[in-house]
Each structure stands twice: as structure tokens, then as C-alpha cells.
């Protein structure tokens, strides 16, 4: 009879052999990399901070700026080309003619022609003083117009400005009225014939020149009047700003300096109408024709400065490297 043998074994003998014991591993080393920490670990550098000390505050590099054309000069590419062409024409034609007009025409006759042009602008001056609520100056301007148109032989002689009467010439216009009531200058423009201007000033000067032809008619609506007025007024204006234009032409960036000078002057004139000074002293200095300036006096063009679309923050945290 077969015999069955039951072999009983202890559980420990049936189990898998135990794994060899391991030594406890070292704790992980926390490492927060930073440029400062890496430099500190170089040979000869100061030892890293002891564990448990507070980390110093983050060090930040913040770069702010704008990109694209200046806000006041969105058509800068077209304006710069127009300025370049206009300056070439000025050097070749306008400047020699203006200097010949100044040097060869007798002074009294040249002053008389200028007085006639200014006298023709007095109706616009008076109307705009009235629109600005400056009633006293409006009546003074009308008095100048009446005196110079009669006693001054149609404006040839500025009798009203002489001692005893004392009514000075005050230039005004629709562009000033718009600025007086808060209309901004709009985009800066440099036009081949008009020169430096803005959208507001171009619109206002167009109304100034159209006042007499529309309100009075003949002879102010004839081409001969318009041509004579344009030539004499243009030559007088060219001579009035001759020194300033020479200073601008000698600067490092004539286009930018011409723009900033024009905008600063117009801001000062509008502020004077409101009785408020111009806040930015740099604009006043830039607008002064006699201010000391040379090739290095022109400001850096705003469109050549570093301009980024938004705030960019580059942070290098002063982290620590700890270990045993």
C-alpha cells in the first residue's frame, strides 16, 4: 500500500530570499540655480549661504518702451522725404530769393509790403479774439485795422503801433481758436509748400486765408491777390526764421529738431492764449531761435530709441545651493 508522506516546511523556507540590507541614502540636495549662486561656486568665491538663512530679494531687470513711429508723427516716412525735398528746393531757390528780397529791396518798401500783408490778416485776428472771448483785444485789433487802412495808406505804414497809439500787432487765427477750446494738434505734417504744420493748423490756416475772399469777394478772390499775398508772406516768414532754420540745418537730426521746435512753439502759443505756462522747459529751450545749439544739440530722434511693445521683466532670483 503506497504511503503518502507529508512534508511540512516552515513559511520562512518557502518565501523568497530576503534582499540584502541597504544603507540609508542621503537626503536629496535642494538646488535652486541662479547666476549669482553659480558665480559664488567658482574657485575663490565666497562660500554659499548657510542653510536656513532667508534668501535675498529678487533682482529684476525691467525694460520698458514703445515701438513704431512717434505718436505725434505717424507719417514720419512721408514727412521725412517731403522735408528732404523741400530743403533741397529751399537751398536752390527760396533762400537765394529771400536774401535777394532782403538785400536789394529798400527797407521801407519791404517793411511796407509786409505791413500790407499783416493788415489783410487783421479781420481774421479780430474775429478769432472775439471767438475766444477776448473782447478787448478784438476791438484793439479792429482799431488797428481802421487806423492802418486809413492813416497808414492801406496798411503800408503801421501807424497804430507807434508811440501815442500803442496798439501792437497780435497774430491770431482759427487754429489758435481750436487749440484754445481743447482741440489737439493732430498728426504732424511737413508739406512741400506749407512746411511744418499739423492737421489742426493746416485746417485753421486754410480758413484764415479763405475769410476775405469769401466774406468780401473782389479783389481778394482774384488769383493776382492770392499770388501776391503768398509770395510776400512766404518771403517774410522765411526771413523771420532764417537764423532758426540755419541752426536746425546744422544739427545732427534736422528733421526731428524742426518738428520738435514747431510743436513746442505752437504749444507755447496755445498755452499763452489760455494764460497757462508751458510745463516742459525743454520744449521752451528748443523753441528759442537764439538758444545755444550746435551739431550735438539736436535731441535723439524718438523713433531711433529702444522701443518695446510692452513691459518686459527679466528676473534672476537670488536662490541658494545647499548640500553637505
Describe this structure in words.
With 324 residues, the protein is mainly alpha-helical. 48% of the residues lie in helices and 6% in strands. It has helices spanning 11-14, 35-40, 76-104, 107-120, 122-131, 135-150, 174-180, 199-215, 223-240, 242-249, 254-274, 281-287; strands at 59-63, 188-191, 195-198, 312-316. The protein has a two-stranded antiparallel sheet with strand order 1-4. Strands 2-3 form a two-stranded antiparallel ribbon. Helix 4 (107-120) crosses helix 9 and helix 11 (254-274) crosses helix 12 (281-287). The chain is globular. Mean pLDDT is 78; it is low at 1-15 and 281-324.
Based on the model shown, name its key terms.
4 strands, two-stranded antiparallel ribbon, disordered N terminus, mainly alpha, disordered C terminus, globular, 324 residues, 12 helices
Short description:
The chain contains twelve helices and four strands. The chain is mostly helical.
Average predicted local confidence, pLDDT: 78
Low-pLDDT parts are 1-15, 281-324
Largest sheet: 2 strands, antiparallel
**Rg:** 39 Å
Number of helices: 12
Amino acid at each position: 500500500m503506497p504511503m503518502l508522506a507529508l512534508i511540512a516546511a516552515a513559511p520562512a523556507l518557502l518565501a523568497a530570499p530576503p534582499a540584502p540590507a541597504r544603507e540609508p541614502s542621503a537626503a536629496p540636495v535642494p538646488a535652486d540655480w541662479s547666476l549669482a549662486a553659480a558665480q559664488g561656486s567658482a574657485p575663490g568665491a565666497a562660500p554659499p549661504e548657510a542653510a536656513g538663512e532667508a534668501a535675498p530679494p529678487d533682482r529684476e531687470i525691467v525694460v520698458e518702451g514703445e515701438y513704431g513711429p512717434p505718436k505725434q508723427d505717424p507719417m514720419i516716412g512721408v514727412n521725412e522725404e517731403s522735408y528732404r525735398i523741400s530743403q533741397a528746393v529751399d537751398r536752390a531757390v527760396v533762400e537765394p530769393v529771400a536774401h535777394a528780397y532782403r538785400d536789394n529791396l529798400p527797407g521801407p518798401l519791404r517793411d511796407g509790403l509786409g505791413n500790407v500783408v499783416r493788415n489783410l490778416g487783421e479781420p481774421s485776428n479780430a474775429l478769432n479774439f472775439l471767438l475766444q472771448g477776448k473782447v478787448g483785444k478784438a476791438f484793439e485789433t479792429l482799431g488797428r485795422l481802421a487806423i492802418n487802412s486809413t492813416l497808414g495808406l492801406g496798411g503800408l505804414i503801421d501807424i497804430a503801433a507807434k508811440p501815442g497809439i500803442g496798439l501792437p500787432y497780435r497774430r491770431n487765427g482759427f487754429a489758435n481758436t481750436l487749440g484754445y477750446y481743447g482741440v489737439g494738434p493732430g498728426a504732424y505734417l511737413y508739406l512741400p509748400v506749407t512746411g511744418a504744420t499739423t492737421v489742426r493748423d493746416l485746417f485753421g490756416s486754410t480758413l484764415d486765408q479763405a475769410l476775405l475772399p469769401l466774406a468780401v469777394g473782389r479783389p481778394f478772390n482774384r488769383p493776382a491777390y492770392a499770388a501776391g499775398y503768398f509770395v510776400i508772406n512766404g518771403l517774410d516768414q522765411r526771413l523771420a526764421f532764417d537764423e532758426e532754420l540755419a541752426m536746425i540745418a546744422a544739427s545732427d537730426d534736422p528733421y526731428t529738431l524742426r518738428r520738435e521746435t514747431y510743436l513746442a512753439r505752437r504749444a507755447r502759443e496755445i498755452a499763452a492764449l489760455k494764460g497757462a505756462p508751458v510745463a516742459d522747459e525743454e520744449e521752451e529751450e528748443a523753441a528759442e531761435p537764439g538758444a545755444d545749439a550746435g551739431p550735438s544739440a539736436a535731441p535723439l530722434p524718438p523713433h531711433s530709441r529702444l522701443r518695446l511693445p510692452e513691459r518686459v521683466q527679466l528676473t534672476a532670483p537670488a536662490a541658494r545651493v545647499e548640500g553637505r
